[in-house]
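seq:
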Amino acid sequence: MRRYSKILCVLAVIFLMAAAPVFSQSSISDLTAGVNSFSGKMAQSLPFYSTIGLNWSDAYIGQLISAPPHFGFGLTAGAVIVDAGAMRPLMSSLGYSGFGNIPMGLPLPAYTAEVRLGGIILPFDAGLKFGYLDTSKIDFINSALGGMSIDYLLVGADIRYAVLDSKVLPIKLSVGFGVNYLKGGVSTTLPTGPYNFSFGGNTLNATSPNVGLRWETTTFELKTQVSFPLFIITPYVGAGVSYSMSKAGYEVKSNITVNGGPISQTHINQLHSLGVTGVNANGFESMINSSDWNMRLYGGLSFNLAVIKIDITGMYNLFDSAYGGTVGVRFQL
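struct:
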């Protein structure tokens, strides 16, 4: 987890530092064109990212009211690797093209705390997950990162129904439905400007802006999973089809002026017509909404050590070839 977080920080710093010297030459139209493409690409990557967590090896954990009761709780950490080219259009509009040439792709790390409860009477189980990080509220981390802030919120839940829970053969099969919500981004404050953005014959000026990338997605997923409990290990494979509602873009927070004076309603209306979705005297942003279908495959195995299980999971997105992996440790009865 720490390793992937450091990689993400370094990449984010490279992007933001590279963008800084060319902000003074940017046009709002170029930024809007870049964020339109960026949002469309992220509409496929973000839902896949949000499915980290709750991918337990057992397709069905059993009844809560049995003896012993079946439930579990633990932690999962990992990352998905998305195509760095998804950011190329926005990077190009900022005058930086090297970011899209990262061979391995862009790692997006995550962790979740999880709990799963067995069903009552009917053969189902239900799970909850939660992950949160905001380094801007942790002074020593924020200082160590040179003022870079990283934040994300990941919340999800699912319910799975056991289609097959064989008492003879070591096999379990379930179908389920899950909902995931993910919100996050990276940001930093740039050195004193000025930073100028042209639009419609005007120049918008920002001094010492806080700039960043932002994203958000809500995903609804139908999934199925089969597992093979073999005492010491439990191999498993699964697939999910999802529909998501996402948005992604950039933000610039700063006291802004236009042509050396206060921004007017006329200027705000012009910026709105160019795709800037939020603008006032304290900054501006462009967040583009996208919706899309996705399909993923996942699988792996767990090592069963009495009531402790260690999960190793691989994930693959069929729509954009993103991939990822997680490691989880949990107590489970």
